[in-house]
Design a protein that fits this description.
There is one protein chain. By secondary structure, the chain is α+β, with helices and mostly antiparallel strands. Helices cover 21% and strands 37% of the residues. The chain contains four helices and nine strands, in the order ααβαβββββββαβ. β7 and β8 form a beta hairpin.
Amino acid sequence: MTQVLLWLGLALLGSLQVQTQDSTPSLIPAPPPLKVPLQPDFQHDQFQGKWYVIGIAGNILKKEGHGQLKMYTTTYELKDDQSYNVTSTVLRNERCDYWNRDFVPSFQPGQFSLGDIQLYPGVQSYLVQVVATNYNQYALVYFRKVYKSQEYFKTTLYGRTKELPLELKKEFISFAKSIGLTEDHIIFPVPIDQCIDE
C-alpha cells in the first residue's frame, strides 16, 4: 500500500510540474489606461526621427535574463496620413537586424495602434502612447499589447543621443514604478556603436 501511495504521489507531482511548465508565468497587470499620461499637444513632425533606447521596463522583462541587453534604435518616419513607418535596428548575433511596422493614429494625438495587425498572428491589440517628450532630447513611450489573451506592457526611455542626464533616468524609473513595475523589471541597455550608428 505504501508503494502505491508513493507512486501516486510521484505521478501527481509530475503532473503538477508539467502543468506549471506549460502555463504562462503570472505577470504584473497593465495599469488602467487613465493612469498612463499622454503628452499634451503632441507634435507628429517633431517626434519623427531616430531615437536610441536608453531604458526599457516591462512586465515580461527581468534584469536576470536581460542584464546585458545591447542598446538599439527605433526610427519613426512620418507619413502623409500622420502614421509612422517605424524601424528598430538591433545587433543580434553580430548582425544588424531590422524590424519594421506601422503605427497608425488612434483616438488622441500621441496615441497609436499597430497597422495591419492581422499580419501578426496572435496579437489581438497593440497600443502605443507617448507619455512625455521634449522632442529634441528625450521621449517616454508606453506600449501595451494583448497576445493570445495575455496582456503585456512596457515603457521605453528614448534619447536623441546615447546618453541622457541622470535626472531623466530617475524620472523613467519613477514612472515605471508608478505603473506597477519593480527595479527588477527596469533595464538600461549597454551602449554600442555597431548597427545603431549607421
